[in-house]
Amino acid sequence: MTVKPMKTLIIGGAASGKSAHAEGLASNSKLNKIYLASANIYDEEMQLKVDKHKIRRGDDWTTISEPLEAKKKIANLNDNQIMLFDCATMWLTNQMLDKADVQSEISQLIDSIILSKGSIIVVSNEVGSGIVPENSMARQFRELQGLLNQELASISDSVIQVIAGLPLFLKQPL
Q1: Active-site choice (21, 53, 57, 71)
Q2: Domain parsing of the chain, residue ranges
């Protein structure tokens, strides 16, 4: 009997505990764990954050750093793997800064998740709960992030919002 790979979206605000919750879910699986990091490291503060996350995950994870081509890494998953993609928000930022065709990139990312043979947990920030940004690029980012989050939620078996480290299940498999 083949087990359907699970697609999970973990969403919440900055520093809400999303990553730690996602890491816990992946760690509890019996699958080989892959961490797909989308962040570019531009300064010492970011490097310290990355190092802290690596220590928290432990040695039984394979870490892949890929700021733009997440879809290719997701497409290569097999059925004995679980991937934590952290995070879709940084990935979207990278796409915008790279002046990519963001709509096309979002579609390709969504398709790679749908077709993935492995299980995947995507971490993403909820950015629509704040004030309307004052500049055009920030408003465009907020709109695209909202679209991306809606697309991710629609294809996910499970959607969990994390607030103050506590999970709130928005969508659960039957």
Answers
A1: 53
A2: 7-171
Q: Is a pLDDT exceeding 70 seen at residue 2?
A: no
**Non-local CB neighbours of 136 within 8 Å, separated by 6+ positions:** none
pTM of the model: 0.94
Per-residue pLDDT of 46-82, as tens digits, reads: 899 888 888 889 899 999 999 999 999 999 999 999 9
- Is residue 53 part of the annotated active site? The answer reads yes
What is the bridge-based pairing of β-strands 7-12 and 119-125?
parallel
Residue 74, amino acid: I
Domain 7-171 falls under CATH 3.40.50.800: no
d(CA 165, CA 172): 19
Cα 173 vs. chain centroid, distance in angstroms?
Answer: 19
Query: What is the b/e burial string over 67-92, where b = at least 16 CB atoms within 10 angstroms of the residue's CB?
Result: bebbbebbbebeeebbbbbbbbbbbb
